Amino acid sequence: MTVATFDGPNLIIQLPSIVTYDVQRDFYSAWKQWAALSDNLKYLPAFDTTGGDVISEGQTIAPYFFCRNDLGWRIRMPESDGEIPVEGNLFARQSTIPLFEQAAGFDAFLRLEVSSRAVVIQTGISGLTAAESALIKLIPATI
Length: 143
Fold this sequence. Notes:
This protein has 143 residues and is of the alpha/beta class. It has two helices and twelve strands; from the N terminus they run βββαβββββββββα. It has one domain (5-138). The chain has a four-stranded mixed β-sheet with strand order 1-2-8-11, covered by helices on one side. It is extended, with a radius of gyration of 20 Å. The termini are far apart.
């Protein structure tokens, strides 16, 4: 099993090789274990999370993991060329700040495989499909 490693002083999450990573196990849990070592809690948190709550027997809300790029953390690709599948719901805490960086001289790229469960997409239309919204617009206001 290959997990990310952490460089607290430089706020780097290092992917050591071209393998498939599981966000919960290889990033978030690896960070929690690293943070508990020595005095690593002195560094800003690398992740926060939401989800995992039980909503009924046998059902939970999908977990979402946010890398704290707003605090300076970033994920550095390995010193290798190739595709890196990342399985799980990984998001940048601040979408306008880059989360990933290449290792100099190498061409690695990520394929994020996120869950489609419990993702809300804002359309500007209150829960209606575009077709339903168009039908409502055709109804006279006097009804």
